[in-house]
Design a protein that fits this description.
Blueprint (H helix, E strand, L loop, with lengths): L7 H10 L1 E2 L12 E8 L10 E2 L4 E2 H8 L1 E2 L8 E21 L9 E7 L6 E2 L2 E5 L2 E5 L1 H5 L7 E7 L3 E4 L2 E3 L2 E10 L9 E2 L2 H18 L36 H12 L11
Antiparallel strand pairs: 1-2, 2-6, 3-4, 5-15, 6-12, 6-14, 7-11, 7-14, 8-13, 9-10, 9-12
Helix pairs in contact: 4-5
């Protein structure tokens, strides 16, 4: 399945090959998943990878740099496994429910939503944790997006989640389970939830600004102050090498600028 180039006919074929979403341990349709379709990982193959150089995509590195605090720049901490493909058509919805069970050994999940030929509306995911909630609208992010565009969100286990009714079109999602490679240090990793949403918002705002002919009509420079302090030797004259050590929102800013084909570098301003 070429998920980065989904036509209307591809959507129809995919929907006919899926089956109703079910409980994990039952063949009965889940009443909380109205009009939700799924395809288990054993029944499909896709050429989509979480790291794709041709579109400047490296989701796992982004999650490692921004989703987890307390990691080392020289180690890979996250392994992702495809769980299933889901399709949401008109009137599809998911009632609020606990997303994962205590017995699961993965620490979180990743959802990737693909742009389609016909834009969808509705289908906002809402995450509930203690007394707080956060809504993620992939349809809004992908509306009028360039071809081969995705939206993605990562979140921890043991939260409540719901999906509002889809009012138009279809949403196609790949769900991954996220595991820690370094099991011994997994309990020391702290999830930073806010920056994942900021990346999509910043990318959209910067993209729209760059497309606006009134924005820097004669060219110029864009500067973003660093959120973190970085130490380096006095003879460390080439600040470009600092790019590999950026973290958090600094890494997010660099990733977005690079993906939009900007010549992004670390500079000192006096």
């Amino acid at each position: 399945i070429d998920l980065l180039n989904l036509s209307d006919s591809d959507i129809e074929s995919l929907a006919s090959a899926c089956e109703p979403a079910t409980f994990d341990a039952s063949s009965e349709s889940d009443p909380s998943h109205h009009e939700v379709l799924k395809m288990d990982k054993e029944n499909f193959a896709t050429n989509f990878e979480l790291t794709q150089a041709d579109i400047g995509l490296d989701i796992l590195s982004f999650i490692e740099n921004n989703f987890l605090e307390g990691t080392s720049e020289t180690m890979e901490y996250i392994r992702a496994e495809i769980h299933q493909l889901n399709m949401y058509g008109k009137d599809s919805l998911i009632k609020r429910h606990k997303y994962s069970r205590e017995k699961e050994i993965n620490f979180g999940s990743l959802v990737v939503v693909f742009s389609t030929a016909t834009s969808s509306e509705g289908g906002e995911l809402t995450f509930f944790y203690h007394n707080k909630s956060w809504t993620w609208d992939s349809a809004k992010i992908l509306r009028n997006a360039e071809p081969r565009t995705i939206a993605y969100v990562a979140f921890r286990n043991n939260i409540d989640i719901s999906l509002s009714p889809v009012t138009k079109g279809h949403q196609v999602m790949l769900t991954y389970k996220l595991y820690c490679i370094d099991r011994e240090n997994a309990e020391n990793l702290v999830i930073s939830p806010s920056i994942i949403s900021e990346e999509s918002t910043f990318r959209s705002a910067l993209y729209n600004a760059l497309k606006d002919p009134k924005f820097l009509p004669n060219g110029g420079y864009l500067g973003f102050g660093l959120c973190y302090a970085y130490s380096f030797d006095e003879d460390f004259s080439d600040l470009k090498n600092l790019k590999q050590f950026l973290k958090g929102r600094d890494a997010m800013t660099l990733n977005v600028c690079t993906s939009l084909e900007l010549d992004a570098n670390v500079k000192a301003v006096y």
